[in-house]
Design brief:
The protein is an all-alpha fold. The chain has one domain (about 1-320): Na+/H+ antiporter like fold (Up-down Bundle). Helices cover about 75% and strands about 0% of the residues. The chain has helices spanning about 1-10, 10-30, 40-50, 55-60, 65-75, 80-90, 95-105, 110-120, 125-150, 160-185, 190-195, 205-225, 230-255, 260-270, 275-285, 290-310, 315. Helix 12 (about 205-225) packs antiparallel against helix 16 (about 290-310). The longest helix has 30 residues, at about 160-185. The radius of gyration is 19 Å and the shape is globular. The protein starts with a helix and ends in a 12-residue tail after the last helix.
């Protein structure tokens, strides 16, 4: 099983499209509504295995302040305005699609920020902090950005957002730490770090693939009902993600050490599309379906581009040197 998971993890650029197609076909063929109940379990499975190898004390230590500040400057000082500008250009006569692009760029970080940082062997403790700060700040600032840029007013259930933070960060972190202590006590710290702990991150692959399958299944009928507009939506999304990846990579590579730079990339490029989708669907009535379609397609770009970025991480930042990576066991 571990060997199979490791092979899948190394070939996410193939596994993810396969799950996308599978989810899309399932969503067209069956009622996918029940899959909503799987979102939280899959998100948990995506994050928890990474937390088993996390040195928890590093999360509460300093040392990555520059990465944290740069990440949030990109998240709130650059990306929302880039998304707004692209929306105005590509969707000049479709304001709700422009709104969807803005929402897709407004709420940074999710469980995937942590899991992708782990896959790329970046600084996971920094990624955890970026996730917490990004979710809280993004949830508080999104209504103001939408009002300022689009002239619309929305409400966000902050309690629901805090619950999400608990489920995707703090609960997995706690259980991961307890698992780490139990296994280190049973096998010894050296054996845990050498052979037991490294097996866990591969389990995150199941969570990632599950989330991809569910996301595409739930939006399959929406996507299939408007095939003629797919291309017009995919182009600005591709431009936005390409701009974001390029900017974050250049900043990280020039100003930060390898682990922090990788965390910055995933902390500033990965957006919480689940929250964005919920806002689009719940805050804007029937017209919000246009915004929701843009966000649904962003799932495809975001997950696939993240997988490819893992593939080329060593070429971009140089080979990983385990002895210098503080966040891995």
């Amino acid at each position: 099983m571990w060997t199979l998971l490791q092979k899948i993890t190394k070939n996410l650029i193939v596994a993810i499209p396969v799950m996308m197609v599978g989810g899309f076909i399932y969503g067209l063929s069956f009622d996918p509504a029940w899959l909503k109940s799987m979102i939280i379990p899959f998100t948990f499975l995506m994050v928890y295995p990474m937390m088993v190898t996390l040195k928890i004390r590093k999360v509460f230590e300093g040392g990555d302040a520059k990465a944290q500040i740069l990440t949030q400057l990109i998240n709130f000082g650059v990306v929302p305005f880039a998304a707004y500008g692209l929306g105005m250009y590509f969707f000049a006569d479709k304001p709700y699609m422009a709104l969807g692009l803005l929402l897709a760029g407004l709420v940074p970080t999710s469980g995937m920020t942590i899991s992708w940082t782990g896959f790329a062997k970046g600084n996971m403790s920094a990624a955890v902090k970026m996730t917490v700060v990004g979710l809280i700040a993004g949830s508080l600032l999104t209504p103001f950005f939408v009002k300022m840029l689009m002239g619309a007013s929305i409400e966000i259930n902050l309690m629901a957002v805090f619950k999400q933070i608990v489920f995707i960060v703090f609960l997995p972190m706690t259980l991961g730490y307890l698992t780490q202590r139990f296994l280190a006590g049973r096998y010894g710290q050296e054996e845990f770090q050498k052979s037991v702990g490294p097996k866990f991150p591969s389990l995150s692959t199941l969570g990632v693939l599950g989330i991809v399958f569910v996301a595409l299944a739930l939006k399959a009928k929406t996507i299939a009902s408007a095939p003629e507009v797919l291309f017009s939506i995919l182009v600005p999304l591709l431009v936005l993600y390409l701009f974001n990846f390029t900017l974050s990579t250049l900043i990280g590579k020039s100003l930060l050490p390898r682990g922090d730079a990788i965390a910055l990339v995933y902390g500033s490029v990965m957006r919480n599309l689940s929250i964005a989708l919920a806002i689009a669907i719940n805050a804007f009535g029937p017209q919000g379906s246009d915004a929701a379609l843009v966000i649904a397609l962003a799932y495809i770009i975001q997950v696939q581009s993240a997988a490819w970025y893992v593939r080329f991480t060593d070429r971009i930042f140089g080979a990983n040197k385990p002895a210098r990576v503080a966040c891995q066991g």
